[in-house]
Amino acid sequence: MSTTNPVSDSKPHLLDPEQDLLRVDNLHVGFGEKRDVTEVVHGVSFSLAPGECLAIVGESGSGKSVTARTLVGLTGGKSHVRADRLEFDGRDLLSFKDRDWRGLRGKDVGFILQDALVSLDQLRPVGKEIDEALKLHDWGSKHERQERVIELMELVGIPEPEVRAKQRPYELSGGLRQRALIASAIAMDPKLIIADEPTTALDMTVQAQVLEQLQAAKARGKALILISHDLAVVSQLADTVAVMNGGVLLEYAPAAQLFARPEHEYTKALIEAIPSADSRGERLSPVERRASLGTARAYEASDAPVLKAERLFKSFRGPDGVDRTVVNDVSFQLAQGETLGIVGESGSGKTTTARLALALLEVDGGGVTLAGEEWSGLPERERRKRRADISVIYQDPLSSFDPRWTVEQIMLDALNQGSGDKKARKGRIAELLEMVGLEAEHLARRPLQLSGGQRQRVAIARALAPQPRVIVCDEPVSALDVSIQAQVLDLLADLQKELGVSYLFISHDLGVIHHISDRVLVMCDGKVVEFGDADDVLLRPHHPYTKKLVASLPVLERPEPTGPRPFGRPPRKGRPSPAGAPDYSEELAA
Amino acid sequence: MSATPHTAGAPGGAPAPASARQRLAIPEWVRGIRPGVALAGLVVAFFVVAMIVPSLLTGHDPYAVNLEETLQSPSWAHIMGTDQSGRDLYARIVYGARESLLIGLGATALGMGLAIVFGTLAGLGNKWVDGAINRGVEVMFAFPILLLALLFVAVFGPSVTTEIVAVGLGTAPGYARMVRGQVLSVRDSGYVEAARALGHPYGSIVRRHIFPNAMRPLVVVMTLGVGQSIVWASGIAFLGLGVPPPSPEWGALLNAGRNYITQAWWLEVMPGVAIVLFSLSLTTLGRHLQQRLEGGVRR
Description:
- The complex is a heterodimer of chains A (590) and B (299).
- Chain A has 21 helices and 21 strands.
- Chain A is an alpha/beta fold and 590 residues long.
- Chain A has two domains: 40-271, P-loop containing nucleotide triphosphate hydrolases (Rossmann fold), CATH 3.40.50.300; 302-553, P-loop containing nucleotide triphosphate hydrolases (Rossmann fold, 3-Layer(aba) Sandwich), CATH 3.40.50.
- In chain A, the strands form four sheets. Chain A has a six-stranded mixed sheet with strand order 7-8-9-3-10-11, with helices on both faces.
- In chain A, helix 4 (126-136) packs parallel to helix 7 (174-185) and helix 15 crosses helix 16.
- Residues 1-17 and 561-590 of chain A have low confidence and may be disordered.
- Chain B has a single domain (39-60, 83-297), classed as MetI-like (MetI-like fold, Orthogonal Bundle).
- Chain B has helices at residues 5-8, 18-24, 28-31, 35-52, 89-124, 127-142, 145-156, 160-187, 190-197, 202-238, 250-257, 266-297.
- With 299 residues, chain B is mostly helical.
């Protein structure tokens, strides 16, 4: 292998353009001891040519990450890999020993992991980290390597590389960290880059930057395997898409064909499950709506604000003793039966705003009224009596339940504030579980014994128990798989329709926000930058920040489907489709 | 620790014929116990019996001086040999279990009791309360436990009570830190905020969520602590600051055997083995308990 500068050597040095770089035939991966092996990947086949991007899409437990890790020999000690063929660049990976893998990783195959903060050594400057990738494979002299590190950092779009190279991961933003990780993955100019959920932990605008870098690598002739649960992200980059579920490859097709005419039911459901501007007011999941809501009290929709925040301020003292204003002059109104979406990137003050609305934090300035009456200004003793009117659903339901308690205890506790004898309360619990689509058998379980979707349903049932007028939903679907997210969003929409409850819905995901919100509040650095009707704000943004945010949203690029849409959803008219949305690519490049 | 019965006897759940198991109808929770843990349970049970009715386990009188049988090595008549006054060593160890275990349990109870009070206050109190308690704990940390014991013996004279108080006070600061950390982490947990959002009063949240969840890991720490306290107490006794002779307390036995170590090795080895075996068994049980308790509710 040459030790000349790999980047300027931009001609893809390939054996033969016709030949595949990677061939995987009938791959099986299992884990466990001798006799007790559980197979998690059952016969997956695909191939990849240079300059191509293959996306492996699936939900958690689909086997997508294991498949990717097999290609770099990182499946671990107790794994069993067998395949009819597993070839990379003309070499048989099945015969690889530890030493061969070490020679391959970093040099011929670059691996980018999901969380840069975990993957980078906290105590080592990022420049050193990138240098390490070169040093491991004896690339150049110390001086040459230093120049190369700077060059690589420039290549992945890190500003002021000389300064940044000396900084440690915690001194860099999430986007810069992820880019440093990409720089170290491409340092040896590998022929294949594998990116495992490279943008999942990132903010929307940062995600756009990272995708742009991967696109650039692809343009330089690199083969790319992108592992993701997010079809919209995938549609930006992939030439071929492999949809996996339960360790099986369900569909494997060119991207354009797969998005336009998905063959497999699962792929269709996955595409339908993506919330967006286009899916507003429609169901995302194939699950039918439940009819019976029992004796639940319903609120009449009205224009009088049920929750009103006026000029909220909140600041926290940082570790350096300087006060930081986290919520800066935030005002909003929420009417009965409507959903107000708060969207913003991490650190924008969304969650603090939610906690101020819940009066779990005291305001520094301004005030909140609940159902037209003073709320934030009351002493906690007075507020307790009215807490039934406003409840909350968290992102991580597991940590919001006492680990010792069963679902029944959790529900009884939520009803404890209300009146009624034990029998009436049990009846009410059964009713609440029914509402959120859980069975009586779940009552005896602890949250740990439930799936992620079931846990969030329990959290919703608990939030509904006191018959609140408002539910504050703080990233309630962010930790869920796409299809589970679709079910939970549908459930929330159903409950609103029937109960007239209002949602203050917080999310970093523009698609989710647009899907569920009537009105939208965009936050940036603690300030409200835009507030208005969801379509006005998200389809015709005025503020530059909102524009940037909207532009960075990866939209599933698919041609208008012909024929009837799944789940009987009629094609919508009068609303610009995502495919027809303005092209922001120039703006992005600028 | 690698040679504990715990690891030595764990076969990793060899798949026995299911039909035979079903015929025996062994309940699920018994089947889950590994042989090492069962052995540890037997050892602990033995010493607990020794503590309550020592006469059940030996026919010898631990205090009966027999000058014709001094310093005899282990034999069928005296399975652990005799001491310089011809007293049966096995009987002395069995009878000594009462004082030793009392010291272990008492010191741990005292240390943990103090720790729970101060740790919870520090965890739930405002920054002044927290600060004051933390400074106090740090001062206590600075005192070597043996120095503290010396002080107590000098003032109150050597006795079981003195030893309990000395070891209890010595171990309290460490436990207090642990309790405070637990209380803090539970206090800031999602479910405590969720309970606030439901409108539960603070007192009820402390009672129903914070206290039980913060105390849960301490159950295990306490079983580990009893064994440790016994070792501490033995150390103090070995220095001659423990329970005065002719008490058969294990540490006192060690101290007494010191002078005959060249002639009668069993005087040092046997009480030492008792101490090690008991604390090891308690530790094993504690870890088992830890896995049982936390396995079900691990985050």
